[in-house]
Write a structure and sequence with these properties.
With 635 residues, the protein is of the alpha/beta class. The protein folds into four domains: 217 residues, P-loop containing nucleotide triphosphate hydrolases (Rossmann fold); 194 residues, Rossmann fold (3-Layer(aba) Sandwich); 105 residues, Winged helix-like DNA-binding domain superfamily/Winged helix DNA-binding domain (Arc Repressor Mutant, subunit A, Orthogonal Bundle); 72 residues, DNA polymerase, domain 1 (Orthogonal Bundle). It is built from 28 helices and 17 strands. The longest helix is centred in the last third of the chain and has 21 residues. The chain binds adenosine-5'-diphosphate and zinc ion. The site of zinc ion has 8 residues, from α16 and α17.
């Protein structure tokens, strides 16, 4: 019997379930089929609840382990003669690999979507109707067709419709950017098959989305499982934007040379430019956004999933459902819209539990742009109010002097202690009292108005504060203002920092076509001298973030192996690449890096010893065991 090994290395921060012992049948499937020693966090409780026939809503962070929550009940119920589990997923392009991963572990699964030839589809339908399939993946638009519903009816009549799992359930909510109209039709599954348990899963935890899922999918009576949202292996870093492309390049080359990663940008144009820039600098970068041809998108996605060390530069159109476990970093060149988006995107790093980075550059223009996008949108005032609140929370995270993780988790309603694995914990920033500087800036804007009734942008304001004579200052007679030159003691970059933080805090608004600065209601309090303003010491423009961090942060190798073990690891990777090519699957579907690393480190010399390694289930042991032992011996 396999030993239950301690899985600390693999944890994603989900505390071991505190409930009683997990269901023995479920545990045996986890160990025999998937080769994992223990359930993570809420997994055991979810599985048990669903095995008893209950409905559930599962909220877990990206990379938290949602798939097993429905895959294990699916297998157990199929073994008990209850037939197939229907998995609803919007991600047609990923179904092939998801199903391939299950087949690798010996679980009979299939998908039905438009990419299949007629013959293949008919074959799968026969397998389905005969009750042989354990899991069937399909997109909602397919499921809602009369033909598909008729097949489900037929299965249901014979007691062979076991369970419905609705993945990416937040797609039913109009609040997020992933809204899919067809998800609204899924309540039909409940109306037609009220006795079939349903399980909705998502990584979006906010309260609007949760309410929408429960209402629209008719899951009001479902039990809710909320996992810990912590992903302790991810290191959060937010740097001040200076020269973002150069900063990104340095980050990638210094800390993630040769690693797979994702770089998020806001616009398609920036995606294209950044990908090209990285390629010119020798980084294997590809672009992905909704404006690219479907064939190009598919090709780039396949290369990201199948090749080693590809950096995908993308808009948020990329990433949902991407379960590549060895993405070592997620970088943001632009500020996302809110913390939900940021957390979902950064969560795509380090699913394998090994160290990973979430890195973002952030500057004045980001604050201005995000505020503007909300102001200019045609949405209702109520909607804008919610969006502003969400943006404020994200800005507070970016400007904050305290632990990033404490803030992130706090946003999801979870209390925690400073983490020791974010930039603010590792290199505590110094604060300076910017009350005086803020007052100077605000009163200078006030004087502009008084003087000529006009408002100006940040560039001119900084010139006036620093006492710089330009054509514009002369033209407007601003060298005569009492605030001219009162801020010569701060550098231009420092002033930009002050203004950014004043906008982030809502004391200043940047308005109109020319981004002119206006005082807000709350600016008055600052001008009156109420309260003080403690700001992060602005980074010197010449001081690169890398240098700022000092030598305190050596590159943490994701896989700490000695030379000989590293050699074995490489041999295993070469072998794995061949298998993956033969099976037309991404390499990680065969084995994760973490599993290969454990083999390389532990050097198992028998099938029994190999079976003890996390990620090696019965089927993979049979299929690959002797090959692996041979590779290990030869290396
Ligand atoms: P999610 O869908 O929640 O983003 P996944 O289901 O893709 O996350 O799981 C993330 C990773 O964690 C996967 O690589 C999966 O194999 C692994 N995993 C999930 N549960 C366990 C477990 N109990 N023990 C070890 N690894 C696990
Ligand atoms: Zn921290």
């Amino acid at each position: 019997m396999r030993l239950v090994v301690a899985l600390n290395r693999y944890h994603c921060g989900l505390m071991p379930s505190t409930s009683s012992e997990p269901d023995p049948a479920a545990l045996s499937i986890l160990q025999q089929v998937f080769g994992y020693g223990a359930f993570r966090g809420e997994q055991a409780a979810v599985v048990e609840h669903v095995l008893r026939g209950g409905d559930a809503l599962v909220l877990m962070p990206t990379g938290g382990g949602k798939s097993l929550c429905y895959q294990i009940p699916a297998i157990a119920r199929h073994r008990a003669g209850r037939g197939v589990t229907l998995v609803v997923s919007p991600l047609i392009a990923l179904m092939h690999d998801q199903v391939g991963a299950l087949e690798e572990t010996g679980v009979h699964a299939a998908f039905l979507n438009s990419t299949l030839e007629g013959d293949e589809a008919r074959h799968i339908e026969r397998e389905l109707l005969a009750g042989r399939l354990v899991l069937l993946y399909a997109a909602p638009e397919r499921i809602l067709t009369p033909r598909f519903l008729a097949m489900l009816e037929s299965l249901h009549e014979r007691g062979l419709l076991s369970l419905v799992a609705i993945d990416e359930a937040h797609c039913v909510s109009q609040w997020g950017h992933d809204f899919r109209e067809e998800y609204l039709g899924l309540s039909v599954l409940h109306e037609r098959f009220p006795d079939v348990p349903r399980l909705a899963l998502t990584a979006t935890a906010d309260h609007h989305t949760r309410r929408d899922i429960l209402e629209r999918l008719r899951l009001q009576d479902a039990r809710q499982f909320v996992a810990s949202f912590d992903r302790p292996n991810i290191r959060y870093t937010i740097v001040e934007k200076d020269n973002p492309r150069a900063q990104l390049l340095r980050f990638v080359l210094d800390e993630h040379d040769g690693d797979a990663g994702i770089v998020y940008c806001q616009s398609r144009k920036r995606v294209e430019e950044t990908a090209e820039f990285l390629r010119e600098q020798g980084v294997a970068a590809l672009a992905y956004h909704a404006g690219l041809d479907a064939a190009v998108r598919k090709d780039h996605q396949d290369r990201f999933l199948r090749d080693d060390g590809v950096v995908m530069v993308a808009t948020i159109a990329f990433g949902m459902g991407i379960d590549k476990p060895d993405v070592r970093f997620v970088a943001h060149l632009d500020l996302p819209k809110n913390i939900e988006g940021y957390y979902q995107e950064t969560g795509r790093a380090g699913r394998d539990g090994l160290p990973a980075d979430a890195w973002m550059t952030y500057g004045l223009a980001d604050v201005v742009n995000q505020r503007r996008m909300i102001d200019d949108s045609p949405a209702a005032e109520e909607f804008k109010r919610v969006q502003r609140g969400k943006l404020d929370a994200l800005l507070a995270l970016a400007e904050g002097l305290d632990c990033r993780r404490v803030r992130l988790l706090g946003y999801f309603g979870q209390a925690s202690e400073p983490c020791g694995n974010c930039d603010n914990c590792l290199t505590p920033p110094t604060a300076w009292d910017a009350t005086e500087a803020a007052r100077k800036a605000l009163s200078c804007i006030y004087r502009f108005r008084q003087h000529s009734g006009l408002s100006f942008g940040t560039g001119h304001l900084i010139d006036v504060l620093r006492g710089k004579l330009t054509d514009k200052t002369r033209q407007h007679g601003h060298e005569q203002l009492s605030t001219f030159g009162v801020g010569a003691d701060l550098s231009e970059a420092q002033w930009r920092g002050v203004l950014r933080q004043l906008i982030a805090l809502g004391h200043l608004a940047s308005i109109g076509e020319y981004n002119t600065l206006e005082l807000t209601e709350s600016a008055r309090a600052v001008l009156r001298g109420e309260g003080s303003l403690l700001l992060r010491v602005p980074a010197e423009p010449t001081r690169r973030p890398r240098a700022a961090r000092g030598s305190g942060r050596a590159k943490v190798p994701p896989l700490p192996l000695d030379d000989l073990a590293a050699q074995r690891f490489l041999a295993l990777k070469t072998w794995r690449a061949e298998v993956a090519r033969e099976h037309n699957l991404p390499a990680y579907v065969v084995f994760h890096d973490a599993t290969l690393a454990e083999m390389a480190r532990g050097q198992p010399d028998s099938l029994d010893a190999l079976a003890g390694i996390s990620g090696v289930g019965v089927k993979k042991l049979q299929a690959y065991g002797s090959e692996i032992l041979r590779v290990l011996q030869a290396a």
